[in-house]
Structure formats: structure tokens, C-alpha cells
Design brief:
Layout: H1 2-15, H2 20-34, H3 41-50, H4 57-71, H5 73-85, H6 91-107, H7 110-127, H8 132-143, H9 153-161, H10 167-184, H11 186-196, H12 209-232, H13 237-255, H14 261-294, H15 297-309, H16 312-327, H17 332-349, H18 354-368, H19 376-385, H20 393-412, H21 415-423
Helix pairs in contact: 1-2, 2-14, 3-14, 4-7, 4-13, 4-14, 5-6, 5-12, 6-7, 6-8, 6-11, 6-12, 7-8, 7-19, 8-19, 8-20, 9-17, 10-18, 10-20, 10-21, 12-13, 14-17, 15-17, 16-18, 17-18, 18-20
Subunit structure: The complex comprises the extracytoplasmic solute receptor protein and the two transmembrane proteins.
Keywords: Cell inner membrane, Cell membrane, Membrane, Transmembrane, Transmembrane helix, Transport
Function: Part of the tripartite ATP-independent periplasmic (TRAP) transport system.
Length: 427
């Protein structure tokens, strides 16, 4: 009965429109009551769920991403990338992808990356002859690399839920797959641009290289400082987030002079709101996870899945399909919190490397961020472009297919994810 309440109650609450945090916490609490596990375990698990040092990095990285977005770093990076690529056929679309990848190395959040780049790129791409649905699709897909290229909020949460995978190892493991995912988008972007003649209109003179480099160097140095400090041991991932915030403040206030006190207050308020939502979901999901693991529900479901399917390759394929489907309707953080208690026993049973497993899961969820109907990145870019999500489908499916090819490579060639952390001594 308790297991029925746990899973059935959770699904019922979601169907009737309850917020995810409420559905997780309430279903877990009712199951604990029914199983007589002690109601005092609820507040204990709520506190224990967020009283973890690595989670301190989440609100600070969210703040860092918002500061860099408002500081105008994306605009300077676009100018610099344009000076390299030029305004040739498909050139601005390639610039958008490259800038999204660099911004992903600062923000760690797909929607924040999409908002920053779309605001700058979509008007200039439209002027150069790119349809807004195409531009929105390219930027939404490229922004999804933000949760793969370190620093990544998704990797921090995964490391808390799966302690065998450290944050530095996950950051290193996400680098090659993240770059591979971004580069995979270049093929359909360039092909579609040339096939339909996008970008042939006059987009203005090519920016001078050295001047644009001087302006963009502050944004380019951000991921170097963050990742370099982590590699040398100068600071932990949590401390790296604090360094990123103060570096972003220095760039926005003293270098670009684009951050006012009013804007800084708005950034702090928005970061606090976003962080509160994420941490509330984490806190209440701990109740759900504790109830399920204490009653042995997750182990039983995992055992049934392994016995029913048997083949390791088939399990991997089905797992990827399920994650892709869930990624269309839920965000990465929510999926991790709901599914990882169930997936960890499967990972252990097949002796999969937890670092590679985390990268593979995150890559699935990255694809979900720009796959309709509930693609969070695509919601952001279509809102900036002032278009409907339906108008992007004919373009965005090409991007989905391209990144799926990269996912297949990472799934069946684990060394793509594990080579760098091994080289750096994290594994």
C-alpha cells in the first residue's frame, strides 16, 4: 500500500497540476505515514537534502550566469566570433553556436545561455536573412551544451545524488562530449543555411579582429579562470562559483560599465528566486527518495527492469529513449531528483562507470531542452523572437538528429567522456 501511495500519489498529484516539489514531498510524506516509518523523518530529510556543501555552488553559479548575461559579455563574444567567421552564407549561425558554447562555460544553465545569446543574435540574424524560427532553433540547441560544458549545475546535483562521481571528475568528463555536441550542430546548420540561402543579405562590415578580441578577452578569460583554478587546486567548485561572481561584477561594473546598481539589485532578486525554486525541489525530493529507498522500492523496480530486459545494450537503448521523452516535458534537475534513486541500482548492477553514466544522462537531458513540446530553451528563444514554438519544428528536428548522433557516440564509446578525467587524475 505504501508503495502505491508513493508512486501512484506522485503521478496523481502531477496530473492534477501540483508543483513538482509539492508532489514529491507530499507523496513521500504520505508513504512514510502509511509505512509507519516515523513522521519526524520528513523534516530531517528536508534539512539533510540541502545541507550539503556542494549545493552551495548552485545559487552562486546561477548568480554568476545572470551577472555575465547582464554585463554584455555575450554581445562582445558575438562581435569577436563574427570577426573570425565573417558574414558569409551560414556564418552568423555558426557564430551563434560558438558563442553559446563559450557562454555555457560561464553560466552552467541552458535557459540563461539561450536568453543571453538570443537577445543579441536573433535581431542581427534576421537582418542578414535568417528566418526567426531557424535562428531560435539553432540558439536553443547550442545553448543546451551549457549543462555539459563545465561548470554545470546539473553535474553538481548529480554528484550530490551519486557520491561516487566527484564534481571535478564530472566537469572534466563533460568537456569532450559538450564540445562534440556543439560541433555536431554545425553540419545541419551550415547545410540548411546554404540550401536555403540564409545569411546572404548584407549584415554590415566585418568587425576588426584585434579590437573585438580586446573587448571579448574578459568574457573569454572567465571559463579559463574557473576551470584553471579547479585544475590547479586553487579553489573548490563552490569557491569557483564565488570567484566567477566577483569576476563578473568587476567586468560588468568597471570594464564594460554596463551594470548599474538598479540592475545589480534585479540580478540578485532573480538569482534568489531561481535558486529558491531549485533548492526547494531538492529538499522535498529527499523525502521521496528516502521513503522509496527505505521501503526497498527502487531496488525492486530496478531488479524487475534488469530481469525483464536482460541485455545491457537493450537497457541502455530503452533508458536513453525514456530520458529523451522525459526531457521533453521536465527540466534536467527534476529528472535527476526523480529518477536517480531508481537508476543508481541499475548502474551498479551493470557495473557502469558513474562518471560516464552521469554524462550520458545529462546529454539526454540536454537534447530534451530543445525538443518540443516543452523545451525550456526553445521557450526562451521563441519568446525573444516573438514566434510560436510550432514554427520551429521543421528546423529544430535537424538539430535534435545531429545531437543524437553525438549521444550515440558517447553512449557506446565511454572513453569520449572518461579520457580527460583519467588524464587529469580524477579517476
Amino acid at each position: 500500500m505504501a508503495l502505491t501511495i508513493l508512486f501512484g500519489g506522485f503521478l496523481l498529484l502531477l496530473v492534477i497540476g501540483a508543483p513538482l516539489a509539492v508532489a514529491l514531498g507530499l507523496a513521500g510524506s504520505l508513504a512514510i505515514l502509511d509505512a509507519q516509518l516515523g513522521i519526524l523523518s520528513v523534516p530531517t530529510n528536508v534539512y539533510a537534502g540541502i545541507a550539503k556543501y556542494p549545493l552551495l555552488a548552485i545559487p552562486v553559479f546561477i548568480l554568476a550566469g545572470l551577472i555575465f548575461e547582464r554585463a554584455g559579455v555575450a554581445k562582445q563574444l558575438v562581435t569577436f566570433a563574427s570577426s573570425i567567421v565573417g558574414a558569409k552564407n551560414g556564418g552568423l549561425a555558426v557564430v551563434a553556436i560558438l558563442v553559446c558554447m563559450v557562454m555555457g562555460g560561464i553560466s552552467g544553465s541552458g535557459p540563461a545561455d539561450a536568453a543571453a545569446v538570443a537577445t543579441v543574435m536573433i535581431p542581427s540574424m534576421h537582418k542578414a536573412g535568417y528566418p526567426k524560427p531557424f535562428s531560435a532553433s539553432v540558439i536553443a540547441a547550442a545553448a543546451a551544451t551549457a549543462i555539459l560544458i563545465p561548470p554545470s549545475v546539473a553535474f553538481i546535483i548529480y554528484s550530490v545524488l551519486v557520491p561516487q562521481a566527484s564534481v571535478p571528475a564530472l566537469f572534466a568528463a563533460g568537456m569532450v562530449p559538450g564540445i562534440l555536441a556543439g560541433l555536431s550542430l554545425l553540419a545541419p546548420t551550415i547545410w540548411l543555411s546554404r540550401k536555403h540561402g540564409f545569411g546572404l543579405k548584407d549584415a554590415g562590415p566585418r568587425p576588426p579582429f584585434w579590437r573585438s578580441l580586446r573587448q571579448a578577452i574578459w568574457g573569454l578569460l572567465a571559463p579559463v579562470i574557473i576551470l584553471g583554478g579547479l585544475r590547479t587546486g586553487a579553489f573548490t567548485p563552490t569557491e569557483a562559483a564565488v570567484v566567477a561572481v566577483f569576476y563578473g561584477l568587476a567586468v560588468g561594473v568597471f570594464v564594460y560599465r554596463s551594470l548599474t546598481w538598479r540592475e545589480l539589485y534585479e540580478v540578485l532578486a532573480e538569482a534568489a528566486e531561481m535558486s529558491a525554486v531549485v533548492l526547494l525541489i531538492i529538499a522535498l525530493s529527499s523525502v521521496f527518495a528516502w521513503a522509496g529507498s527505505t521501503m526497498g522500492a527502487f531496488d525492486r523496480v530496478a531488479a524487475l527492469a534488469i530481469e525483464g530486459v536482460g541485455s545491457e545494450v537493450l537497457v541502455l537503448l530503452l533508458l536513453n529513449l525514456a530520458l529523451l521523452a522525459l526531457g521533453m516535458v521536465l527540466d534536467a534537475v527534476s529528472i535527476f531528483l526523480i529518477l536517480l534513486p531508481l537508476l543508481t541500482p541499475i548502474m551498479t548492477a551493470f557495473h557502469w562507470d558513474p562518471v560516464w553514466f552521469g554524462v550520458m544522462l545529462t546529454m539526454n537531458l540536454a537534447i530534451g531542452q530543445f525538443t518540443p513540446p516543452m523545451a525550456v530553451n526553445l521557450m526562451v528563444t521563441t519568446r525573444v523572437a516573438g514566434i510560436s514554438m510550432e514554427s520551429t519544428v521543421r528546423w529544430v528536428l535537424w538539430m535534435v538528429a545531429a545531437m543524437l548522433c553525438a549521444l550515440v557516440l558517447v553512449t557506446f564509446v565511454p572513453e569520449l567522456a572518461l579520457w580527460l578525467p583519467r588524464k587529469l587524475g580524477y579517476l
